[in-house]
Each structure stands twice: as structure tokens, then as C-alpha cells.
């Protein structure tokens, strides 16, 4: 066989392996394609000022409107909204495709490192049940996006490390660009330079000055990204500021337990939960430190163990713990109010654990012949894939999603709130109210729960209790703009226009990019007989949500009242252009009336 024909066989083999990985993604995660939007997906899509705004693609790169600085992720959501809109399937398909791409790139990384069972490791990653928390959840697109760039950065850097001098620059530049892209998708990949150090040590068995110097810019990028993320999380975290109230000793003890927890789920992925119960840690208790002592003991064994086994253990364990480090509780993150751990937090670290475990197993099984490792590998893929398929079905809709959380974690107040929201959308307002009441009973400081309880009372006509719940929400979180707006709207509905408008103005001040708050304020201004003020807020709605035809139509009617016929004509033309039969043809009639009124004689601020 000639050298060319050998290369062709290898190419065909690689192509089939890539297709097999992609096929496993589809087979194991296919229920996700039928899944709906969940939990905080709305804050990335229809309730996102960046996704909805016409200039959101540009603002994603300089605006502080999000609670994290993830401009590439925000940009992808902006584009996808214009492609897929309110259809969840398109977002899920993209997530599955990115998961597959990440697995293919990881396989190439494992091959570059000459790890045993490289393809099997990538295949197990594809079908591992822990990955469902990322792949089946649209919000976690930031995970699959960042992993693809993260794996690409590792692959490029490893090529840079082994290529002759003339060809090294392009690989190094590619590694830097891919790492920057990964950071701009999700900053949890900041530990890449540490992982690269470990991989270089694995490859050569030593580290020299020449290995450290090229990593200096990568360490600098990591430090800058970490600083930006900490600043955003501490000041702009969703749901309020993320706070660190526990002592360092408590966080350190908890971190050891987190690592042990994640390692157990990587090896034995059973009893998975969307939100795990949040355990309490008593740093005074000796037992609280046992997981950390166990982790330290394993590291000591890795250091003392000589030969290839010791080096593999040091590299795999070091890369695993290093990648987990940002989510071990040392830094403020709002999600830790719900739980100290989450499956999607292990997504980037999982490949290191799998490479260590599957690689060691493959080496041991090869002594029994070539057939046994293949049989064991096939069984492993089938077993994990079946479990992943079942776990993916939990994400079908918010009803199944929150029910699964409450089944495993009945103390999860956020799940009572989420299930209540789902029930309200199904029209079961009484049961929704009971769920919101349980949420605030479990956590009296849960402002979102009080706000939703207020809305539930308002739907059932109990305005007094609704007002009390909104005021409770505002006492807990004065900056919760939705609760402030809801209270203002309720007061206006009861005829207390002055206080209601003041409250709604405060909501607009707190969230100036939320079109719904401007719309409510405009209605109240019109109710008070101030069409000019109403027009200003309706202009804001149209600017922030150009597709809101109702706002355009109301703006046109309000402009007619102020005598601004020319701008009214412009808005009516846009309404008729977008929906010729809007409001039973009323927009067409209004347009004809404005034309007959000779708009050139009207006062104009619109042209």
C-alpha cells in the first residue's frame, strides 16, 4: 500500500469517526429538539434588550446591559432570534450541533496528545448524562459555544508547541484568537493557561522557561477576563447583586465537597438533578473537611507516583480541578443561592475526568486482547446514551422541568416559583398562587416570588393582597423594576394615578431598556390626559421594540391628539405596511383620515 493510499484510508476513517460522533449527539440528545423554552431563556431572548433591539448586535460589544459580558453569546442569540424567533427547535438544533463540534475538537486534542481510547473518550463525553444540563437548555448555549473555541485553542496551542519554528506563529495566533473567543462566550474557561501548562508537562515530562514565556499573554487575557466577570457578577448579577457572606474557611471546605461531588457524577452519573439541594457547611466540624482531605490525599499519591501512571494522574486530576476552580464557590455567583453545584458547571471539566478514567481503563483492558475494550466501550456508550435520552425528556417544557426539580429538591423555592409561573400560563391561577405562597414561605427574602404572588392575587381580583405582595417585593429589592412597575400599574388601575405614575417612572429609570415599562407608563399618562408625555414613552417602546405594532398604532393615535399629524402618518404607514388588516382595518381608516387632514399643516417633530 502506497503512502497516498494510507493517507486516504486514514481520512476515510476520520470522516466516519466524525460522523459517528455527530450521530451519537443526535441519538442521545434528540428529545431536546422537541423541548420548549425554560427558566431564564426569556432573559436571553424576548426579554433581552440586546436581543430585541435593532442595534443589539453592536451594543453587545460595548454595553453593560447584561449581567455578564458575553458579547459573542449575545450576538449569536441576536442572530438566532431573527432566524428562529419564538421557535425553540432552532436554538436546540444549534446547541446540539455545537456540542457535536466540541466533541470532534476534543477528539482531535486527545489524538494530538496521543491519549489511549481518544475517540471513545470523545464519544462518552457526547452521550454523558451530565452534559444534558447544557445541551437541552437553550440558555447554556454559552457553554457549547465556549467549549468549541476552548478545545480549538488547546488544539492550536499543542500544534504550536510541536511545530518547527517557521510554522509556529500561525498556530500561536490561532490559539490566542480562539481563547479570546471562548472568553467572550463564557468566562469560565479562564483556567486554560493552567491546563496548557499541565498538558505541556504531560507531553514532555518537564517544564522550562521556554514553555512559560508563550503563556504570559494567555495568563494576562485570563486575568483581564476574570476581573471583568467578577465586576459584572458583583454589580449586575441577575436577580440582584451576588454576595459573598460565608467565611473563607467555609468556602474552602465546601470546595472540597464540590470537587468530590462532581467527580462522583462524572464516574457514576445517577440521581442527577436540575437544581441540587444546597447543603450547609460547618467549617468547625471535622467531617466538613474530609472531602478536601481526600482530594489532598489523591494529589499526594499523584505527586509520589512515578512513571507514566503518576504523570497521567497529575495531569488529569490537575486539569479537572483547575477547570472547576471558577465554580467552586470562591467567587460571588447568584446561582449559589440555589445550590453549590450544577451539572452545567462541570461541562468544560468533564473531558479531563473522562480522559483520565477511560484512558486508564483502556490501558488495563488491552492486556486482555483487542476485542474486550471495544465491547466494554460499546456497552458504556449504549448505557450512558440511554440515560441521557431519558434525562433529556425532563427538559420537554417548564412543567416537566420544574416538576423534576421539586421531585429531587422540594425545598427549592425557585422551583415552586417556576412551577407557579407555568401553572399560571396554563390558566390555573389558584394553584399558581399556592405555589408562589410556598416559594416565599421557604424564602421570605425572595423578591421575585413576592412579585409573582402579587400578580397572582391581581389576576384573581384581590388587589389589596396584590399591593401588599408588590410592596413586600420592593422592600426586599428596591431595584426590582418589574415589581415597581406592577405596583404602579395596580395603583393607576385603582385610580391613584399620581402615585402610580411616579412608581412607573421609577421602574423606567431602573430599567430604561424594558419596552413594557414604557408602555404601561404611556397608558397611565394618557389616562391622566397628558398625550404629549404618553407619546414620549410610546416612542421609546417603538425604538426598543420596532416590531410592536400595537405601540405604533397607539403612538399614531396619541400623536393625532397632540396635532403632530405628519409623524402620526409615518407611524400609521408603518403599521399598515407590517399588517394591512390591523385592528380590523382601523389603521387603514386612520391613515386615510390623517391624509385628508392635510398633515403639512400639523406641527412636526418626526421629520
Helix content: 55-70%
Order of SSEs:
HHHHHHHHHHHHHHHHHHHHHHHHHHHHHH
User: How many whole angstroms does the radius of gyration measure?
Assistant: 28 Å
Please state the overall shape, judged from the principal axes of the Cα atoms. globular
Low-confidence stretches: 1-9, 237-242, 599-607
User: Which class of secondary structure composition applies to the elements?
Assistant: mainly alpha
What is the tally of helical segments?
30
Beta-strand share of residues: under 5%
Distance between the termini: 76 Å
How many strands?
A: 0
Multimer state: single chain
Instruction: Summarize the main sheet.
Output: none
Mean pLDDT: 88
Please describe what this structure looks like.
The protein is mainly alpha-helical. It has helices at 3-29, 41-44, 49-52, 56-59, 71-84, 88-112, 118-127, 132-135, 141-162, 168-185, 192-204, 209-212, 216-236, 248-267, 290-304, 307-324, 350-365, 371-393, 398-408, 413-425, 429-442, 447-459, 463-476, 481-493, 497-510, 515-527, 531-544, 549-562, 565-578, 586-596. Helix 25 (497-510) runs antiparallel to helix 26. Mean pLDDT is 88; it is low at 1-9, 237-242 and 599-607.
Amino acid at each position: 500500500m502506497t503512502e497516498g493510499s494510507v493517507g486516504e484510508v486514514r481520512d476515510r476513517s476520520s470522516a466516519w469517526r466524525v460522523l459517528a460522533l455527530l450521530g451519537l449527539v443526535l441519538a442521545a440528545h434528540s428529545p431536546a429538539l422537541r423541548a420548549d423554552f425554560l427558566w431564564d431563556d426569556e432573559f436571553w431572548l424576548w426579554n433581552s434588550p440586546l436581543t430585541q433591539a435593532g442595534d443589539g448586535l453592536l451594543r453587545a460589544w460595548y454595553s453593560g446591559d447584561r449581567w455578564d459580558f458575553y458579547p459573542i453569546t449575545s450576538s449569536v442569540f441576536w442572530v438566532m432570534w431573527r432566524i428562529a424567533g419564538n421557535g425553540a427547535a432552532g436554538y436546540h438544533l444549534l446547541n446540539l450541533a455545537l456540542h457535536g463540534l466540541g466533541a470532534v475538537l476534543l477528539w482531535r486534542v486527545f489524538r494530538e496528545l496521543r491519549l489511549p481510547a481518544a475517540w471513545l473518550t470523545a464519544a462518552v463525553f457526547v452521550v454523558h448524562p451530565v452534559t444534558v444540563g447544557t445541551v437541552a437548555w437553550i440558555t447554556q448555549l454559552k457553554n457549547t459555544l465556549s467549549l468549541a473555541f476552548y478545545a480549538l485553542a488547546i488544539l492550536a496551542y499543542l500544534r504550536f508547541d510541536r511545530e518547527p519554528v517557521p510554522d509556529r506563529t500561525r498556530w500561536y495566533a490561532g490559539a490566542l484568537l480562539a481563547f479570546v473567543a471562548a472568553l467572550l462566550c463564557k468566562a469560565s474557561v479562564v483556567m486554560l493557561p493552567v491546563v496548557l501548562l499541565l498538558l505541556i508537562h504531560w507531553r514532555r515530562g518537564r517544564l522550562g522557561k521556554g514553555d512559560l514565556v508563550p503563556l504570559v499573554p494567555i495568563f494576562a487575557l485570563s486575568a483581564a477576563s476574570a476581573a471583568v466577570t467578577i465586576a459584572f457578577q458583583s454589580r449586575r448579577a441577575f436577580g440582584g447583586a451576588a454576595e459573598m457572606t460565608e467565611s473563607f474557611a467555609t468556602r474552602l471546605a465546601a470546595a472540597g465537597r464540590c470537587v468530590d461531588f462532581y467527580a462522583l457524577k462524572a464516574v457514576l452519573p445517577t440521581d442527577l438533578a436540575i437544581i441540587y439541594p444546597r447543603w450547609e457547611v460547618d467549617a468547625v466540624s471535622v467531617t466538613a473537611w474530609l472531602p478536601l482531605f481526600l482530594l489532598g490525599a489523591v494529589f499526594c499519591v499523584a505527586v509520589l507516583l512515578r512513571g507514566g501512571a503518576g504523570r497521567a494522574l497529575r495531569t488529569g486530576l490537575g486539569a479537572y480541578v483547575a477547570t472547576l476552580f471558577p465554580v467552586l464557590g470562591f467567587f460571588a455567583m447568584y446561582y449559589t443561592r440555589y445550590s453549590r453545584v450544577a451539572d452545567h458547571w462541570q461541562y468544560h471539566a468533564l473531558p479531563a475526568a473522562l480522559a483520565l478514567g477511560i484512558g486508564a481503563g483502556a490501558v488495563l483492558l488491552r492486556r486482555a486482547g483487542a476485542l474486550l475494550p471495544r465491547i466494554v466501550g460499546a456497552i458504556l456508550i449504549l448505557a450512558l446514551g440511554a440515560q441521557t435520552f431519558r434525562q433529556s425528556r425532563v427538559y420537554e417544557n417548564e412543567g416537566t422541568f420544574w416538576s423534576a426539580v421539586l421531585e429531587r429538591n422540594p425545598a427549592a423555592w425557585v422551583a415552586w416559583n417556576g412551577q407557579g409561573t407555568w401553572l399560571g400560563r396554563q390558566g390555573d391561577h389558584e394553584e399558581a398562587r399556592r405555589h408562589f405562597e410556598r416559594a416565599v414561605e421557604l424564602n421570605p427574602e425572595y423578591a421575585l416570588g413576592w412579585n409573582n404572588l402579587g400578580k397572582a392575587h391581581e389576576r384573581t381580583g384581590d388587589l389589596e393582597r396584590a399591593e401588599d405582595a408588590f410592596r413586600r417585593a420592593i422592600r426586599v429589592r428596591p431595584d426590582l423594576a418589574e415589581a415597581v412597575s406592577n405596583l404602579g400599574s395596580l395603583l393607576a388601575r385603582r385610580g391613584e394615578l399620581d402615585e402610580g405614575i411616579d412608581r412607573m417612572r421609577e421602574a423606567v429609570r431602573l430599567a430604561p431598556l424594558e419596552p413594557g415599562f414604557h408602555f404601561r407608563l404611556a397608558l397611565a399618562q394618557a389616562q391622566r390626559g397628558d398625550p404629549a408625555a404618553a407619546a414620549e414613552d410610546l416612542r421609546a417602546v417603538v425604538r426598543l421594540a420596532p416590531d410592536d405594532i400595537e405601540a405604533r398604532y397607539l403612538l399614531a393615535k396619541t400623536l393625532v391628539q397632540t396635532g403632530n399629524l405628519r409623524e402620526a402618518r409615518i407611524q400609521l404607514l408603518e403599521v399598515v405596511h407590517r399588517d394591512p388588516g390591523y385592528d380590523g382595518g382601523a389603521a387603514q381608516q386612520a391613515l386615510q383620515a390623517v391624509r385628508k387632514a392635510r398633515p403639512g399643516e400639523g406641527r412636526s417633530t418626526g421629520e
